[in-house]
Amino acid sequence: MDLEKLQQKLEHRRPAILGSEHFLKYAILIPIVQKQDELHLLFEVRASTMRRQPGEVCFPGGRIEEGDKNEQEAAIRETAEELGISSNKITNVQPLDYFVSPFGMIIYPYVGFIDEAEILPNQEEVERVFTVPLSYLLHNPPKEFEMNYEVKPAADFPYHLIPGGENYNFRQRPLPEYFYEYNSDVIWGLTGRMLKHFIDVIQKD
Fold first, then answer.
1. 57 forms bridges with which residues in the sheet?
2. What's the Cα-to-Cα distance from 200 to each of 38, 142, 157, rounded to whole Å?
């Protein structure tokens, strides 16, 4: 390969996250509803029949599909399907920072406004919904704990090819886990992380 061909390969590339073509991509929506004179955030409790994370609290959302125009459209589509509302009832949708999970996922979160009176949850996916006053979340920070993610090489890992062999000092990666409690519901995991990010954004000067 000569210099001209090399330059042609590189000059029009748009940088992305290395390996992102192998990541699963999801979009979620943090729904805001008006209840009387106060703003609330709406949460789902996943149906007990769901294969993954049954009974856990989450925001509406799901995997981005080929037919979705972009991440925002996926978040709106999934929210409409799960809450049984028309997509045109989801308004003022704005993006937050996306999150690259250590488990091979990229999560694209959005915030949008919906009319709670229109909601008729899809019982196959959603056991129930509940809301939390935004003022409560602003004045009640989450409990924070640390989760350590360790590198565990496979049994056939070629230790003989790296300095130190089996004594190589693989890094651990600590990540905070946030827990919000409201009545009998616990919000944590990726949902807790997205909620913490949203609260941080709106509290920033």
1. 45
2. 19, 12, 41
- Tokens in use for 155? 């049994």
Q: Which amino acid is at 34?
A: Q
Tokens of 154: 């496979």
Residue 195 CA to residue 114 CA, distance in Å, equals: 17
Instruction: Please name each of the domains of the chain with its CATH number.
Output: 23-203 (3.90.79.10)
What are the helix (H) ranges across the chain? 3-11, 71-83, 134-139, 189-203
Tokens in use for 107? 């999560």
| 3-state secondary structure labels for all residues of 114-146 | CCHHHCCCCCCCEEEEEEEEHHHHHHCCCEEEE
Report CA torsion sign: 103, 50, 113, 27: positive
The helix (run of H) or strand (run of E) holding residue 109 is strand 105-113
Provide the token pair at 201: 């954004």
Nearest of 25, 7, 8, 3 to residue 16 by alpha carbon? 25
Cβ contacts of 196 within 8 Å, gap of 6 or more: 142, 178
Half-sphere exposure of 151 (CA within 13 A, CB side): 10
- Digit-coded pLDDT (tens) for 92-144: 999 999 999 878 899 999 999 998 878 999 999 999 999 999 999 999 999 99
3-state secondary structure of 15: coil
**pTM for the full predicted model:** 0.89
